Amino acid sequence: MGGNSPCASCKLLRRRCAKDCVFAPYFPSDDPHKFAIVHKVFGASNISKMLQELPVQQRADAVSSLVYEANARARDPVYGCVGAISYLQNQVCELQMQLAVAQAEILCIQMQQQEQQQQQQQQAAALAPSLVQLEPDIDDDDDGDHKSYFLHPHHLLNFTSSNSSANVIYDSFKKESHLYPMTWFLN
Length: 187
Prior knowledge:
The chain is 50% helix and 17% strand. It has helices at 8-13, 32-42, 44-53, 56-75, 81-127; strands spanning 130-138, 146-157, 168-171, 180-185. The protein has a four-stranded antiparallel β-sheet, with no helix packed on it. Strand 1 and strand 2 (146-157) form a beta hairpin. The chain is rod-shaped and about 100 Å long. Belongs to the LOB domain-containing protein family. Residues 5-106 form the LOB domain. InterPro entries: LOB.
């Protein structure tokens, strides 16, 4: 700042602010508390040494970090920033555990829903009448008016996969390993 208005550090230290004051760009006179807290924690000579060792483009960030650490030390003299970081890391761990529990609950619910759907499908399949294809067996003794149809258990069809034009009926019979003779009289 030079001559007219000394920077906050020079005001606090009660010295004349020179043109090349290392503190002037970062500790303006209108914010004296900023330098006071940093000076209390780190000391003016240590701050001056740190700033002079850094390139000019990094000094503003360094001052910002020093102010943050000094404020953290004022709140927690033992741990400072490390206490705040540790607290936040613990929160992250707790939230990750809560997230894992929630994801596990979602997975359990999805698995239960899938199981219920499968049970419903199995129940629907058990209750739905099965489809049966009948094969004609023409009796050679008769004149062709009398046809006998035999129900073959190996011919149980799914309605959607049937490509035959043969007679299809709904069968409420249970499967057995032998043939069921059925006679239909056709006119």
